[in-house]
């Protein structure tokens, strides 16, 4: 079978061919993984198709490996996206840079008007080695020197206030003159991004080849659902993402909190308590699905505000349906990774909100206990703080809770000192250690609240 490329596009069914063929590269993306390819790249292509404005080709960059460049370059950066039974080759990506390539020159090019980032939660840590944000700042410096005009930089990672967070980290790396230029020329709008995109497997590639009739090593599999809410604050021009289904709003915060806490928080609960290998399997377990509803209804939903006129009950139902999608092989190990970077915004912030109101966030505390069990018992722990998280798996629950609550980057000083929270997590961990997760959830379900 031949490889997917512009030259072989004619072999593909017309309905599966790209919607647009950009002539200019207006977007630079840092972190061109599966999520970007199935989300922002798709919105950008649709925006070009809706308007005929073909200046929004994407130059993607990888921070650590040449893998994506090796897969996409031989295919003219074309790749297929399968959502349910619908397959389409996406044409918005024009170029992929490997780690050593000159990213700064791309960021300094006058035709570049927008930069998007998916560098994962841990990409926003203050880190001495060269980081994606460090490379972004080098690019801003080159752009300022070239006087190449305004730029909008959009963090598409699952962090609260992601725009302001990124702007703050950029500012820390800028010298005074550059900071002034950034202040006048660069905007960092906040966004909420949503689409479940499991890591592509060998079987996914085989399936894509069978559907397209050509080999595609850049294929991604996702769900039909996609959502993008963007703060309407741009420094210059942008793709017409609003014409592709994105929502441009004055305040992203209510959507962002809702998604981070309910979807991502729900995901983390699945990762640390379900015992399943894939998300959809967890939803097949009635005791676990019941627990997830309680977590959302009792501990997470009451912490959300600003959603007047929005049907939250419907949103939660749709999440449970999305999680249960049997067509997505979403490994819980992928979600369990980097918990130290994910728990704070997903579950600890809502715990704080509940505690401040005098409530006991016991379902959240049980997930935190599940995470503590995970970090003390996993043989391979995938987390930037792994060295400090690992510990004696035979220690008492109280000792483990004490040790881990002391990690201030995760729990802050406030949760460490909070006696109600400590007692809830300790109780949860004692139960998990004694009975395992399945029996604990069943007992909690049967017992009084
Ligand atoms: C997941 C997210 O891996 C994880 O931690 O919770 O990647 C999730 O699938 C996306 O945010 C969905 O939009």
From TrEMBL:
The protein's Enzyme Commission number: 1.1.1.17
Matches recorded under Pfam families: Mannitol_dh, Mannitol_dh_C
Keyword Cell division: no
Keywords in alphabetical order: NAD, Oxidoreductase
GO molecular function list: mannitol-1-phosphate 5-dehydrogenase activity
Domain Mannitol dehydrogenase N-terminal: 26-242
Catalytic activity entry: D-mannitol 1-phosphate + NAD(+) = beta-D-fructose 6-phosphate + NADH + H(+)
PANTHER family: MANNITOL DEHYDROGENASE 2-RELATED, MANNITOL DEHYDROGENASE DSF1-RELATED
Protein name (Swiss-Prot/TrEMBL): Mannitol-1-phosphate 5-dehydrogenase
């Amino acid at each position: 079978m031949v490889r997917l490329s512009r030259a072989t596009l004619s072999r593909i069914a017309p309905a599966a061919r790209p919607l647009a063929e950009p002539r200019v590269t207006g977007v630079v993306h840092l972190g061109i993984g599966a999520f970007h390819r199935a989300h922002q790249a798709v919105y950008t292509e649709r925006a070009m198709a809706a308007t005929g404005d073909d200046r929004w080709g994407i130059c993607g960059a990888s921070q650590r490996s040449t893998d994506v460049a090796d897969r996409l370059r031989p295919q003219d950066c074309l790749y297929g996206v399968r959502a349910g039974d619908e397959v389409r080759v996406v044409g918005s990506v024009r170029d992929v840079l490997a780690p050593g390539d000159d990213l700064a020159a791309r960021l300094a090019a006058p035709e570049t008007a927008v930069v998007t980032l998916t560098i994962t939660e841990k990409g926003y840590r203050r880190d001495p080695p060269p980081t994606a944000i460090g490379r972004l700042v080098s690019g801003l410096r080159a752009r300022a020197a070239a006087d190449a005009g305004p730029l909008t930089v959009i963090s598409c990672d699952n962090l609260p206030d992601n725009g302001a967070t990124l702007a703050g980290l950029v500012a820390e790396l800028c010298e005074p003159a550059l900071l002034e230029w950034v202040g006048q020329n660069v905007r960092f709008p906040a966004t909420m991004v949503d689409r479940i995109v499991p890591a592509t497997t060998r079987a996914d590639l085989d399936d894509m080849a069978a559907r397209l009739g050509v080999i595609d090593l850049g294929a991604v599999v996702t769900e039909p659902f996609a959502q993008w809410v963007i703060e309407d604050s741009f420094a210059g021009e942008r793709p017409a993402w609003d014409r592709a289904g994105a929502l441009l709003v004055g305040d992203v915060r209510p959507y962002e909190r809702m998604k981070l806490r309910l979807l991502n928080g729900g995901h983390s609960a699945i990762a640390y308590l379900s015992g399943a290998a894939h998300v959809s399997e967890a939803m097949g377990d009635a005791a676990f699905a019941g627990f997830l509803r309680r977590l959302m209804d009792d501990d997470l939903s009451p912490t959300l505000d600003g959603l007047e006129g929005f049907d939250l009950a419907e949103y939660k139902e749709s999440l449970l349906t999305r999680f249960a999608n049997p067509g997505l092989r979403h490994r819980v190990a992928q979600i369990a990774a980097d918990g130290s970077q994910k728990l704070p915004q997903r579950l600890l912030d809502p715990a704080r909100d509940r505690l401040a109101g005098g409530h006991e966030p016991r379902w959240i505390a049980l997930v935190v206990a599940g995470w503590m069990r995970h970090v003390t018992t996993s043989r391979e722990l995938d987390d930037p703080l792994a060295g400090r998280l690992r510990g004696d798996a035979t220690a008492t629950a109280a000792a483990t809770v004490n040790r881990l609550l002391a990690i201030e980057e995760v729990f802050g000083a406030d949760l460490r000192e909070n006696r109600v929270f400590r007692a809830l997590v300790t109780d949860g961990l004692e139960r998990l250690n004694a009975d395992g997760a399945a029996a604990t959830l069943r007992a909690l379900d049967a017992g009084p609240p």
